[in-house]
Amino acid sequence: MARGDGFTLLEIMAALAVVAILIALAIPVFRETLLNTRRDEALAGLTRSLHLARSESLRSGRATVVCSLDATGRCVPRDIDWSHGWQVFVKQDDDDTTRLADSDRLLLEQRSSDGSLLSTNRHTYVYRPFNRRSTNGSFIFCDPRGARSARAVIVSHTGRPRVSDRDSNGKPLTCPEVAP
User: Fold this and answer.
1) Is position 50 within any domain?
2) How many domains does the structure of the chain reveal?
3) Which domain holds residue 123?
């Protein structure tokens, strides 16, 4: 019996088995790459926002505030969970409030909803002009992978942010449980 130009069932099954094995090996790598990309984008956005606040404070001569957003998109100066995003705005008056007022100038609003956790040890970050001390503190970014992939954004008293895989004291970062 002569063999035709097609494939036998056995050859197709072997090819499908090889493809299935390759996909099974590739999925964790793709997931890890996706989570790394999301983390790096979030950290870059936060760092850019902090740099923007610092430079705008020096340029305008006014206090510039970075505060967290709640689920409805309102600035919440008493919250240390920044997972919903943040706002950057310039205070146009000299009051002490860190809420966005009608007279304030909104520079940036960054929203987030990817399920990662971004928390900080400060309620708001206020950048003040003319060599006056700004708010210092640390942000911790956690995702479903936990502490092994956590990163910190550490803000110095001059307002300069830096990214690290350790806290400001050089200790390993800790994360609460984050849903996958």
Assistant:
1) yes
2) 1
3) 9-60+112-164
**In a domain? residue 91:** no
* Position 173 in a domain: no
Q: How far apart are CA 52 and CA 25, in angstroms?
A: 42
The type of residue at 149 is: S
Q: Is residue 157 part of a domain?
A: yes
Instruction: List the chain pLDDT tens, one digit each, 180 residues.
Output: 456 678 888 889 999 999 988 888 878 888 888 899 989 998 999 999 999 999 999 999 999 999 888 877 788 766 678 888 899 999 988 776 677 788 888 999 988 767 688 888 888 899 988 767 778 899 999 988 888 999 999 999 888 999 999 998 999 999 876 555
